[in-house]
Amino acid sequence: MSKNRRNGMLGVGGQRNNLSRRALRGGGPQGAGNGGEQAAERKELLKRMRERNRRRDDREQDTASE
After folding, report:
1. Cβ count near 10 (within 10 Å)
2. What is the C-alpha to C-alpha distance for residues 1 and 19, in angstroms, rounded to an integer?
3. Cα gap 55→45, rounded to integer Å
4. Do the Cβ atoms of 26 and 33 come closer than 8 Å?
5. Does the structure show a pLDDT above 90 at 66?
6. Could you please report the per-residue DSSP string of 4-64?
7. Which residues, in sequence order, are CB contacts of 9 under 8 Å at separation 6+?
């Protein structure tokens, strides 16, 4: 296919965007208010993991004492 320079399209797929390394690794665009949501999710995940580990440790102690 020929390149049509008027509308900026290359072939059928269009023009590629230049992506930063952060974007390639799954990080979204950096902007105001973007980090707070991810930090809250991370805190919630850590809280769930600690609680699960605490329950598992409690069960292991209960079975060891019996």
Report:
1. 13
2. 25
3. 16
4. no
5. no
6. BTTTTB-TTT-PPPP--HHHHTT-----TTSHHHHHHHHHHHHHHHHHHHHHHHHHHHHHH
7. 3, 15
Q: Which residue has the higher pLDDT, 28 or 24?
A: 24
Please say whether the beta carbons of 29 and 23 come within 8 A: yes
By three-state DSSP, how is residue 2 classified? coil
| Structure tokens that stand for 54 in this block | 């605490």
Is the full-model pTM beyond 0.85? no
Return d(Cα 42, Cα 36) in angstroms, integer: 10
Q: Residue 29: is it exposed, middle or buried by C-beta count within 10 angstroms (0-12/13-18/19+)?
A: exposed
